[in-house]
Amino acid sequence: MSTRSHERPIEDEIVRDFKVNLSYGKYLHLDQILSAQHPVSTPVHHDELLFILQHQTSELWLKLILHELREVQRRLAADELRPALKGLARVKHIQHCLTEQWSVLATLTPTEYAEFRSFLGTSSGFQSYQYRAIEFTLGNKDRQMLPVFDHDPAAQAMLTEALERPSVYDEFLRLLARRGHEVPVTILERDVTEGYRMHPELVPVFVNIYEHAEQHWEAYEACEEFVDLEENFQYWRFRHLKTVERTIGYKRGTGGSSGVAFLRRALDLTFFPELYAVRTEIGVPGGNDAP
User: Fold this and answer.
1) End-to-end distance of the chain based on CA atoms, in angstroms?
2) Is the pLDDT of residue 290 over 60?
3) Is the pLDDT of residue 116 over 90?
4) Distance from C-alpha of 289 to C-alpha of 291, rounded to nearest angstrom
5) DSSP state of 165
6) 122 and 255 in contact (C-beta within 8 Å)?
7) Minimum mean pLDDT among 78-82, 115-119, 122-126: which range?
C-alpha cells in the first residue's frame, strides 16, 4: 500500500501578504482581462464566450507579433542581423500558437454559432487593425484600408505609421545593399507606402546568396527565416478559411465580405515574392555564377 501523501505543504518562505507586495493578479491586471468578456446574445449563449476569448487571445498574440516585428525592423536598420533573426524566430513560434487556436474555434458547430451570430452585427475580424498593421509591416500595404478605421483615430494612426515606414523586407534589402549585394537602386529608393511587388531584377541577388551560402551564411539564413514566416502566415490564413467554411459555409461575412471567397483570395498574397522565385533559378545551368 502506498504511503505517499496527496498533500503538498505550503513552504514557510512563500509570500502570503499582498497588501504591500506585488501579486500575480495585480502585475497582470487580471481583474481587467478576465472581466473583458461581454457576450451580446440574448439570452446569453454558452458558446459565445469561446468565440470572444478566441478573438481576444488572438489580438494579444498579434500585439506581441507587432512588438517583435518593430524590433526586427530596428535591428535590421542598425545592421544587427543576428538579433533580428532571433526576433523572427520568436514570431514564428507565436504564429504556431495562432494557427493552432483555430482547432479550438472549429469545435463550434454551425448550429451553435447560428444561435448567436446575428447578435454580432457588423463586427468582423476584417476590422482587426493589429492584423492590418502586421500586413503593412511585412509589406502588404493598402492605403484603401485607412478609411475603414475613420472611427478609431488611434488605430488609424498606427496603420498610417506602418504604411509610411519601410517594411521589414525593405529594411532587409537595404541591409543586403550595405553588405555589398547588388540590390537595384530603384528598389532601395521605391515608395515604401506602396505595397511591395515582384522585382525580377532582384532574383539574381538571391540566387547568388543561395548558391554561395557558405560565404553569405547570415543572409542565407535570413532568407529562409522570411520564407518560414510567410509559410506560417499562409497556414494561418488557410486554417482561418477552413474554420469559416466549416462553421458558416458560404454565407457572407458579418462585416460585409463575401466570406470564404474573400478569404481564399488572400492565399494569393505574398510578402517576399523573390524568395520564392529564386527557387526556380537555383541550380539551373548557365545561371548566376557571380562570386
Assistant:
1) 74
2) no
3) yes
4) 6
5) S
6) yes
7) 122-126
Rounded distance between C-alpha atoms, residue 84 and residue 87, angstroms? 5
Contacts of 48 (CB under 8 A, 6+ apart): 39, 40, 41, 116, 119
Q: Say whether the peptide bond before residue 285 is cis (omega within 30 degrees of 0).
A: no
Burial class (CB in 10 A: 0-12, 13-18, 19+), 200: exposed
| Cα–Cα dist 21/34, whole Å | 21
Mean local confidence (pLDDT), 28-53: 97
Give the mean model confidence (pLDDT) for residues 116-120: 96
* Cα of 134 vs its chain's centroid, Å: 6
Supply the DSSP symbol for 201: G
Alpha carbon distance 120, 110 (integer Å): 15
What does the pLDDT average to over 68-97? Answer: 98
Ramachandran angles phi, psi of 177, nearest 5°: -65, -40
Q: Considering Cα of 102, then 107, then 108, then 109, what sign does the dihedral take? A: positive
- The confidence score (pLDDT) of residue 74 equals 98
Q: How buried is residue 225: exposed, middle or buried, by Cβ count under 10 Å (0-12/13-18/19+)?
A: buried
Helix axes 203-211, 273-281, angle to 10 degrees: 60
